[in-house]
Amino acid sequence: MKKKNRQGFTLIDSLIGITIITMFSILYFGLQHQLHEQDKYDHIRLQQARYQYENQTSYSKQSKK
Q1: How far apart are CA 29 and CA 65, in angstroms?
Q2: Which ranges does the record mark as transmembrane (predicted)?
């Protein structure tokens, strides 16, 4: 290969590598964000269910007295 062609190949190869790394980084951070949001949503839903359950059990205990 000529020296000029080798430099062009190296440049293209580097750009492809950077593109692949960038795409996987964006995918990783997007998934992390989505999982974090889902975790927050599940935590809120669990708190609401727990609050409703505790209210129902406290009403049933009061009605038995």
Answers
A1: 54
A2: 12-31
